[in-house]
Fold each of these.
Amino acid sequence: MTIAELVEEASLEQVGYSSDQCLKCNVCNTACPVARVTDLYPGPKYVGPQAARFRMGRNLPAQGKGGPRLKSPDLTVDYCSGCGWCTTVCPAGVKVAEMNSQSRARMKAGGRPKLRDWGLGQTDLTGRIGVMFSPLGNWALANRPLRRMMELTVGIHHAAPFPKFSRRTFQSAWKRRHKGDVGRPLPGPDKAVVYFHGCAVNYYEPHVANAAISILERNGFQVIVPPQVCCGLPLISNGIYGEAREKAHHNLKILADYARKGYRIIGTSTSCTHTIKAEYREMLDIHDDDATVVANATWDICEFLLDLHDHGKLDTGFGRLDEDLPYHAPCQLRSHGIGLPAMDLFALVPGLRAMDMDHDCCGIAGTYGMKKEKYDIGMAVGAPLFARVRASGAAEAACDSETCRWQIEKASGVRTRHPVEILQAAYLAGDAAAGRAGQSPAGSGGVAPVTSH
Amino acid sequence: MSESYACDVLVVGGGVTGAGVLRDLARRGLKTLLVDRGDFGTGTTGRYHGLLHSGGRYAAGDAVTARECIDENRVLRRIAPASIEDTGGYFVATPDDPEDYVDAFPAACAAADIPCEEIPVAAALRREPALNPKIRRVFRLPDGSVEPWNLIDGNIADARAHCSDAWSYRRVVAFERAGERIISATVRDERSGTTARIAPRFVVSTAGAWAGQIAALAGVEVTMVPGKGVMLIYNQRMTDTVVNRCHKSADGDIMVPVHTVAILGTTDVRVADPDVYDISREEVSALIAEGEKLFPDLGRMRLLRAYAGVRPLYQPPAATQAAQNRSISRAHTVLDHGEDGIDNYVSIVGGKLTTFRLMAEDTVDVVCEKLGVTTPCTTADEMLPNQVPGKTYWLGHRLAEHEAEGGGDSALICECELVTRPMLASFLDEHWPCSVDDMRRGTRLGMGPCQGGFCTFRAAGMAAEHAAAGASGTTDDAIVGYLRERFKGTRPIAAGRQLQELWMVLGIYGGLGIESLVDGGPAADAREADDARR
């Protein structure tokens, strides 16, 4: 592997040459949540820009006839959780996490992916089957002997957090609800937004979508939910690039039409929106016009709401929520580089005492903390966070990313919700105080209130 | 005079040629001693390009050298595979290279028995996509890259197994003559200051570019015309294949992947004194500009340092003086100083690293004839010690070995080049006393992007531990000495990230209170480089 080949595989400026930028300063090692808790992972500097220089030589000594010529010497990079803190903190702009993801993919190249890693990447497939047989699936995932068996056979830790499958997908519920809308002209881009729901909302947490849609509609936006597939991040994390690229192109084709017309694309899963904003280009090396126009049009929901507020356009009719609210900003949200918009929004809610838990990573990192050999590492990474959440004595916590929510809820025992669910509760409290209790906020009809969970 | 040492042959100059001569003499049953004024491989050998020639570069102009190169290329792959990376070589015709040279190239290679196969440009670009897409033709030849210090070590180890020895840091300060013979040499231990008397039956000068200076001690004139060649080291390999321009040899037309880096070279400028030369920013810029004809993105890639070596070029007194060093033959010559009135003294001059073994064989043949020894040369047939037949070097081996041990930073002294504590400890056991720079040559310590920033204090600490009592005062000196040497190479290229790196490293050592590093020397260099950029 030469720099030039890396460049072909990845993106030129973004990743291929970026190890040239490394000053060896160790800021990434200092910030790495995984290296802090385990010796199995030597740290982002070592597996990233440092090891990169040794991965170039493809001139393997002959291994006998038909033997492999190119073999990745890597082992430890598999313990990178992909949280992305290294890239976020690097003062020189080295794309460390992206480099690690690529070396992991190369390390696994040639061999077939582990059944588990393949399965964890297939969020659409597992989600669809899970929803189809949801009572059975939910029973199985809660069944301890079965989970032990799953750990032994597939390698998913028996205690790893799993959400419950919904009884129907958000997509099908939405389609049924909006059957009559087909053919109706859309309002202009200042009056409508596109919603990218992601897999978590589709298969497990439709209540998050409902809260988000209700808030958007309350603020005067019609919500468009185009057909869409998994963003591809779980595939990227598990080193399955080709399929991730297919998902990306599928989504880009649909979203680019809207983006070109000026519609904004809003997501409630902060990792999906980051994938669309950054990783389609940086990791999957998709550099067409679609990728750029969609990336520029994509917003994390809290980022979008805060922007509305900055322009004086956010309905601030929040009622009083007299509670402590521990908040965890997920790694993927930090990678957006948009600050902590949820915290700013919480500050608009009277009585709400939101507390930034100020911890880097909960340890789940997508699907990392679910894996048998990494579960303990993930739990150790998140331990201070869980302790802080528990010590707060709060009844619920908030976090923008689904897998983080599941991890925090499971590990701390404190119910953890998406910021939009909290905001929706605050709107409802405001409505109640104004004597409009019981009314559905924007009259969209049939949008379930958050309490339906 | 505290020491006296008798031997059959004294070899002066511990580059790879000296080591080769030592091995050959030892294997022919002559008790031999090799001395060098510094560590082995600190002259031209350690400052060379890393290229194992296929001979293609000389095929069109110097058929003798070309043939020697390909023969020795084959020999080295056989006897020292661990020192060689089988990169293969491309000779590429860029739009700037003359048609007739390119057209005649395959036939010239064939005439010198050099395998040369034209491959489709697209295939070459697939293998090396950083290459200039505008290249017109590509020929594949068996070039490679070679590790010189390892090669020297192997030759010395083999000689030691044959009743001979090698001493580093011993400078020859005088020869004593009796009539037409040298009867003894006085060597000074450059570290302790003590001197010793060597009484050899024969003296061989393998001092290369310094051969004139050694000859002068014996009262003989040897006119060397040292040719400075500047080379640039890139942080990473943008190519896994040696890439040559297919044209008449010129500046900046070869890129060699060596270990973790890629080296662009070279120039050829005559210098008066092989110890005194400078590298200017203009030379650096001119090299990059030429290099971009091979790899158009070079300007954006990170440079680690610039360095220069001096070729041991020789012009016989009778020859018409060539105006340009480029036109002086790269062939080697054994000078029998019997013609100058000394019967037991020869010098070997000219030549190339690729042909060092042949140079040694030719030299030792002359010595043996004079000493009446008839044992044939075996250096081309017998492998160097600790080699596995056919097992050539692979860049990934250090990473693979370190990873197999669980990776981890704790045991790493030099992070950039993956030099571990056990590697250094065994080096210190074998080579003590030694400087941090000696540790570098043995292990590649400090040769990565931080250029010693993070490993020098650790390595100096290990050396201090090794020295045990009373060494504390010298640790600072060891650090400063090494880093100044590293910084010397950074100076001509200091810009962008490497300049930032330099400042950060200065900050680290300033923070450690090592003031002498900050005063004058490198800090001033960094400031100057900063100013030059503005």
Amino acid sequence: MAPGTVAPRIGGLTLSAWRKIGLAALLGGAILLPFLVSDYRTFQFTLVLIWAIGILGLNLVTGFSGQISLGHGAFYAIGAYTAAILTDQWQVPYYLTPPVAGVVCLVVGFLFGYPAGRLAGHYLALATFALAVAVPQILKYDPLEPWTGGVQGIFVVRPDPPFGLPINTDQWLYFFSLAIAVILFVAAWNLLRGRSGRAIRAIRDQQIAAKAMGVDTTLYKSLIFGVSALYTGIAGSLSAIVIQFVAPDSFTFLDSIRFFIGMVVGGLGSIAGALYGGIFIVFIPNVAEEISKAAPGVIYGVILIGFMYLLPLGVAGFVRTGLARLMRRLIGPAAGRDKASELERKQVVGGPAS
Amino acid sequence: MDLFVQQLVGGLATGGIYASLALALVMIHRATELINFAQGEMAMFSTYIAWTLISAGMPYWAAFFITVTVSFAGGVVIERVVIRPVEKASILTIIVVFIGLLLIFNSLAGWIWTYTIKPFESPFPDRPFHLFADISVRMHDAGAILVTLAVLTLVYLFFRFTPLGLAMRGAALNPESSRLVGIRVGWMLALGWGLAAAIGAVAGMMVAPITFLDPNMMAFVLLYAFAGALLGGINSPGGAVVGGFMVGVLENLAGTYVPFIGNELKLTLALLLIIAVVIFRPSGLFGKPVVVRV
């Protein structure tokens, strides 16, 4: 918007005020949710939050920074096993495990992203693909059995709600995950809006130009890969706490694919998209599995290709376009044009990335 | 000694299969700069088609050639229908489409033929093959090596000595100039996909008697094909073939002689190989480093 023009108002409020109201309503709804639905639904929404955190992690590196990872299921597994081993071997309280899992994955992700990040996009895709396929086998490996429990896996003790709160464990775990999710979403928003966010996007859109402008692309790429692994690792640790069980067979290559699908469906390069993606991943397969055991895979595949043809920016892009249209109608064509086109501009991502 | 030769020949046999799939990957990579993540699942699907034909009573080699033809046509159709609309899109978009294809083929195979593991017939008799002196290897291993060598020779002759092969090489190396001399670049790409699918089908039919047939059988084969293609050089067809044979032999010998690897860490070995190549020699042993003009 050019300086000096008056901010367009709808119903007497500016757009940013509307956005704040919307976010507050969303948070309020999220807090009330477990008191309105059954325990099982609460559990499912906890899973939505966990998947959303993991998808946000993948989106940081793939959607915002343009580096393709097909192996985030590996970090999810590492995070889950870190939490399970900490509580099982050293009786670490469960609420301390997400930060530890995050740091472990940050280090692993950084080290993994450093060599691969020097190369073109599909080398990282290849290396992460290999990582995702190999990790379940490492988890089953005999010499590691004293820690990982081998094929049997590890049981994680179900935590009780603290401070004598009048809620049950399902509800408590929902709030625990919600708090972590809110922290991580706000952190991602902060990371992406400033100088570092511009550098991250510049690497995606035009790496050579970013380098010429003084962005240390190799360092940034491995750092963002590490941060992304941290997010997904924390999601993994939460899943271990909530599901109370980890085993090699529950962390297959399909998890990596699920993160990927969640990201594409929710919206590449969109923070809110991670939430849509989480909802999709938790609720759609249940519907599909009623058709056939193989149906979710076919539906996932068709949806992936269909989104690339029809909605390359996912649900988030669709919502954004819809809002921009609504805005034009509400504010009127003249005043609305600036704001609406600004909204539309935001969703021009990708382009011919290297 | 006996064990060593057996493992070596066994390694060459699976190595030949990796080499075929690696060659399929390199063919698509040279033409489009992309790595087809669905290559393994396409090969698996072809193998199921062969299984269906053989179960219906068709002689092995008839089923073999029908499967190769069908796979070729399938590859062309996939390029024309699914890949072409996103041809000019970003790498990410195309990889999303590849993953979509991977999922569709994998689940479709599970849906049609169930996830039960099936034995797959080998065209070669089930008896040992006397190599020299008192050393013998499995007949299937020797046969698989012969079949892959035949395929590789055919592919080489095709690209080296036929006008169509020349046109395809031209379209891959320099699309603009090829278009100017009248080569239909789009169709050359589709033919490349068809050839890759046909080569993959042969690889699938050769590996299935060893691994048995199930919808997930190609995951590790594809991983080793990746490792082979990277080791040899992702933009060098000859290199990919040598690389495929090398990782096959390495896999078998390491599995036999390095105690902590055994069978349990075979995938991890492939992962380490891939990472090592990416760190130390990203262009592979025989590939040329990629230079980008700014």
